[in-house]
Design a protein that fits this description.
The complex is a heterodimer. Chain A has 10 helices and 5 strands. Chain A is mainly alpha-helical. Chain A has 2 domains: 138 residues, 2-Layer Sandwich (GMP Synthetase, Chain A, domain 3), CATH 3.30.300.130; 113 residues, no CATH class. A 3-stranded mixed sheet of chain A has the order 3-4-5. Chain A has a two-stranded antiparallel ribbon with strand order 1-2. In chain A, helix 5 crosses helix 9. The longest helix of chain A is centred in the C-terminal third of the chain and has 29 residues. Chain A is globular. Chain A starts with a helix and ends with a helix. By secondary structure, chain B is an alpha/beta fold. The chains are: A mainly alpha, B alpha/beta.
Chain lengths: 266, 347
């Protein structure tokens, strides 16, 4: 092996490592739409590599063979978009493993097709509507977590509802509270204008919350949070039974159910 | 029969049991294999280690094992057999009414046999429903709105063909419509496992009871909303209950939400046997209390009265079971012979 290559390799390795870290940081921002948790934290990403031609190769797996195709597609699409935003990226491949629709979804993703184009007549739902439904749920879940925190800190509903977004940003809420505020603000724009003087707490129609009926409102939102947490626990558990999370996974061979059988029996 | 420390007898009706064959010999394709594996993942993930089965036993268990797990080792007095056909995945079906009927025949006082229908089967399916009613006098059906049929990946209960079937069920006195709205199914679109169609038909069919199995999980929030608005919508606890072991905190949240929105008279216990077994589920459930902070928030309390309703009285009401008469029948048949002497105290 020539000396030149020996010297060049560490620099190139470092660059690839840096870029790989950037990819993981992008993926950290992609959420499972139902669970409103990062696909990285959920352990869905089995591999995210950068090759020497600046192409990114992502492989992911889900808690069951049956996980809804539309959500699976949505997550893959979000991953692709998030990573494509990095300026050095020359191309992104996203591959789903061990899923009943793996071949179909992977083929659709590889060709850059939409969910509708990939599944045709069976896909009678609009993915954008679905995405919005779950963005609203994420907004609600993040809002109720923050409202509970503020109430626990002694802020009265009367004060909470008068806060503007700018005032919410200045409110002393502690470390835990700051995290909740950040998460909430990330989804606040889903339901209405979010300039500094806009009300901090609005319902899903964008109307400012009222002190009357505040606790009933919070009770209704609570269900959304409980549901998401319950699902999160279920999904993590199923994933851990299904896959050895310590070893990198091998994607199911294209169009070959037989190989999946063999793999599963290992 | 569950006996409290004070000697009170609680009559238990298991709202959700299966007598399946998921063995490799019966699997038709990769989907059949993946289906039972997914069930096994639920079992392995949520069961206490001491209650975990070997994969082979889980794939196919015999009638005696089931009887013992439910009624001898377990506290069930009666169990509802819910069919799951899955004929696209299994050669002889996964858990058909016919397979369950053999079980019912051997232990008539212990089992309630439910049937099934699929509105996509057209007039032939309607005839079959009449046959099931005539042959087995069924009072309930189990429906999988997300089940595959060839190219179709599911249907809605609010579809026109579904209405024809529900009308027929009503005429035949099949009052209890158990609908699987939960995880582990194959929805291509959210609609196939959405709970909104329940809302529609619960309003249109006031004489029918709609038992939403797995309380709509993973759609608990949508489900609570519907159940609050409709008087004839019930929550089946299967899948939610086993969390009592692995994640008692989450179970506490789920049960307190259900008590708050749905109420103690409309929640039904179900083990989902063979995924889980009644013994440990009920031991844990009877010992369970909702933490004080949650009770403060929701006002929900799991009193002994509420537990008794959930474990048996609610299902008894839906299926017209006279609890005292049934107890006598079971006792006369030697069904309580395995219990300690004290249990046989004269009534």
């Amino acid at each position: 092996m020539s000396e030149r290559v020996e010297q060049g390799r560490p620099a190139q390795d470092r660059r690839i490592e840096e870029r790989q870290a950037q990819v993981w940081a992008c993926l950290q921002g992609v959420t499972d739409p139902e669970l409103d948790e990062s696909v990285v934290d959920l352990n869905f990403i089995a591999r995210a590599d950068v090759d020497s031609t600046n192409r990114v190769h992502i492989e992911f797996r889900l808690p069951t063979y049956w996980c809804a195709a539309n959500f699976s597609f949505l997550m893959a699409d979000d991953m692709r978009q998030a990573v494509t935003a990095l300026e050095w990226v020359e191309g992104v491949s996203v591959v789903l493993g061990e899923h009943m629709y793996a071949d179909k979804i992977n083929a659709g993703l590889a060709r850059g097709l939409s969910f509708q184009e990939t599944f045709g007549a069976e896909a009678d739902g609009n993915l954008d509507d679905l995405r919005r439904t779950f963005l609203i749920k994420a907004f609600q879940r993040r809002q109720v977590a923050l409202l509970n925190h503020l109430t626990d800190m002694g802020h009265s509903p009367e004060i909470i509802v008068t806060l503007t977004l700018a005032e919410l940003g200045c409110l002393p809420v502690g470390d835990e509270g700051e995290k909740l505020v950040r998460r909430y603000l990330d989804r606040r724009a889903v339901v209405g204008p979010s300039e500094a003087d806009a009300p901090a707490f609005v319902d899903t129609d964008g109307a400012r919350l009222k002190p009357d009926g505040f606790s009933a409102y919070v009770s209704r939102l609570r269900r959304v949070g409980v549901n998401a947490e319950f699902n999160g626990a279920l999904c993590r558990g199923l994933l851990s039974v299904r896959f050895d999370l310590e070893t990198p996974f091998v994607p199911r061979a294209q169009g070959s159910p037989a190989s999946a059988v063999v793999q599963h029996e290992c | 029969m569950y006996r409290t420390a004070k000697g009170e007898e609680i009559f238990v009706i298991d709202g959700h049991t299966h007598f399946w064959d998921g063995s490799p010999a019966n699997q038709k394709n990769i989907h059949g294999k993946q289906f039972i594996e997914c069930f096994y993942a639920y079992h392995a993930n949520l069961s206490p280690p001491s209650e975990k089965w070997e994969k082979e036993k889980f794939e196919k268990y015999d009638a005696k094992t089931m009887f013992d797990d439910l009624f001898v080792a377990g506290y069930d007095d009666m169990a509802i057999l819910q069919p799951t056909y899955l004929t696209d995945f299994y050669k002889n079906g996964f858990n058909t009414t016919e397979r369950n009927a053999a079980m019912k025949k051997s232990h008539p006082d212990r089992f309630i046999l439910n049937g099934a229908f699929d509105p996509r089967d057209g007039s032939k399916g309607l005839e079959h429903l009449h046959e099931l009613s005539e042959k087995y006098k069924i009072k309930g059906v189990k429906l999988y709105t997300a089940e595959w049929r060839g190219e179709s990946k599911g249907y809605k209960l609010s579809d026109k063909p579904s209405y024809q079937y529900l009308e027929a069920a009503q005429k035949l006195g099949i009052k209890n419509i158990h609908v699987h709205k939960g995880p582990t199914i194959i929805p291509l679109n959210r609609d196939a496992f959405d709970v909104a169609d329940i809302d529609d038909c619960a309003t249109s069919f006031q004489d029918l009871n709609f038992i939403v199995e797995h309380c709509g999980l993973p759609r608990l929030d949508d489900f609570c909303w519907i159940a609050t608005q409709e008087t004839n919508v019930y929550a089946g606890l299967a899948v939610a209950l086993p969390f009592i072991h692995t994640r008692p905190g989450y179970f506490a949240h789920v049960i307190s939400e259900l008590l708050f929105w749905v109420g103690p008279d409309k929640i039904l216990y179900g083990s989902d046997y063979g995924i889980w077994t009644p013994k440990w589920l009920i031991d844990k459930f009877m010992a369970f209390e909702i933490p004080a902070d949650l009770t403060k928030e929701t006002g929900s309390v799991l009193t002994m009265e509420t537990k008794t309703k959930i474990l048996g009285l609610n299902a008894a009401r839906l299926y017209g079971i006279d609890v005292e008469a049934q107890k006598k029948k079971i006792r006369a048949g030697g069904g309580y012979a395995h219990l300690p002497e004290a249990v046989h105290a004269p009534l």
